[in-house]
Specification:
It is a single chain. This protein is of the alpha/beta class. It folds into two domains: 7-104, GMP Synthetase, Chain A, domain 3 (2-Layer Sandwich); 114-357, P-loop containing nucleotide triphosphate hydrolases (Rossmann fold), CATH 3.40.50.300. The chain is built from 13 helices and 14 strands. The strands form three sheets. Strands 4, 5, 8, 9, 10, 11, 12, 13 and 14 form a nine-stranded mixed beta sheet that branches. The protein is globular, with a radius of gyration of 21 Å. The protein starts with 6 loop residues before the first helix and ends in a 10-residue tail after the last helix. The relative contact order is 0.15.
Length: 384
């Protein structure tokens, strides 16, 4: 039985809930009034919003519930929402303005960008194919999407998207993503001389590469950024939790029990780092021959069992599809070139399910409007 999280665990997790326009977390902004954890695992959170009719209320409550609910031992999350007093609103805006003046943005990603880390416990489960096709399916729904190949050593995104050009720098010496199929793409494969070049980098260099991709790339306004993570629980994963506290994870597995057991490890690492796991994706679920017979070549049940163990939804089951294999080798992703193929349909359904779980942040928030109203007021000093 999982041990109960402490109040400190909950508060640390809530630091990952970011106000989209103010760019600070709910704890820093003073929006968390109180937290209580019962012996039965029920977490009660007193949340103070700037106004009672805040149009972002559902979004903030959903993010809070999802992140706190990902903690081991939590059985339910109850949120008691109230409106801030006039003095509390003034303190919040003073804090927000102080943070903007005194603390530089940690990355070039907009606070409204939803960050989805597509991860796996081991290699060979089709994680890169999943990252690519989920990103493309999301873009096809009209969202602005970026794809970061965070598998620094084992980059494969350029081949999957048939990208041959190289990343360039602008006048400010920031990197400009390459655009392919409507995605903004960054990968070490777009920097090295050729696909066969070996990157002999150690852990610190891997972390620095990820940091550069987040701090020195002109991503622009994105609704979603998908990260194709390296397999396992190494340096890049740990750097991600530090650089992008708003990131959320999808775990990819195959139906094999062995793969499912390994996948639990990467989810455990995420939760220990207060990164919520929002869903599981099963790849290579089965093969359907030309006569309609179904063959479960890699067993069955791994994805469903992983989702149950992690207490997250299974967002999709992707069948083995020769078109996906060929598309990955030739830069013809199935979501674009074979959208009605078995895997193409499955990826589109999985992306739609993901959008339901992690909806896009709204462009206009109640706190943002208050900030604009207070813009004309003189900036008062702020002491901590």
């Amino acid at each position: 039985m999982a041990s109960m999280p402490t109040r400190s665990d909950v508060m640390e997790t809530l630091k990952g809930v970011i106000d989209p326009e103010l760019g600070s977390d709910l704890v820093d902004l003073g929006m968390i009034q109180d937290v209580h954890v019962s012996d039965e695992g029920v977490v009660t959170i007193d949340l103070a919003l700037t106004i009672a009719e805040c149009p972002m209320r559902n979004q903030i409550e959903s993010d809070t519930t999802r992140k706190v609910g990902s903690l081991p031992g939590v059985t339910r999350v109850d949120i008691r929402t109230t409106a801030m007093t006039k003095q509390q609103r003034a303190d919040l805006m003073s804090t927000a303005r102080f943070r903007v003046r005194e603390r530089a943005e940690p990355t070039k990603l907009s606070p409204t960008t939803r960050v989805i880390a597509v991860s796996s416990g081991k290699g060979g489960v089709g994680k890169s194919s999943a990252s690519t096709n989920l990103a493309l399916a999301t873009a096809a729904m009209g969202y602005r999407v970026g794809l970061l190949d965070a598998d620094i050593w084992g980059f494969s995104i350029p081949r999957m998207l048939n990208i041959t050009e190289r990343i360039t720098a602008n006048e400010e010496r920031n990197l400009v993503p390459v655009e392919a199929y409507g995605l903004k793409v960054v990968s070490t494969g777009l920097i090295v001389e050729s696909e066969e070049t070996a990157l002999m980098w150690r852990g610190l260099m891997l972390s620095k590469a990820l940091e550069q991709f987040l701090k020195q790339v002109e991503w622009g306004e994105l609704d979603y950024l998908f990260l194709d993570m390296p397999p396992g629980t190494g340096d890049v994963q740990m750097a991600l939790t530090r650089l992008l506290p708003q990131a959320e994870m999808i775990v990819v597995t195959t139906p094999q029990q062995a793969a499912q057991k390994v996948a639990i490890r990467v989810a455990d690492m995420a939760r220990r780092s207060f990164m919520p796991v929002v869903g599981a994706l099963e790849n290579m679920t089965h093969f359907v021959c030309d006569h309609g017979d179904i063959y479960e070549l890699f067993g069955s049940g791994g994805g469903a069992e992983l989702a149950e163990v992690l207490n997250v939804p299974l967002i999709g089951s992707i069948p083995i599809d020769p078109q996906m294999v060929a598309g990955g080798d030739n830069g013809l992703p199935v979501v674009v070139h074979a959208p009605d193929s078995p895997s193409g349909r499955a990826f589109r359904e999985a992306a739609a399910r993901l959008i339901e779980i992690v909806p896009p942040a709204k462009d206009e928030t109640c706190t943002g409007r208050i900030a604009k109203l207070l813009e004309a007021l003189p900036v008062t000093s702020h002491s901590e």
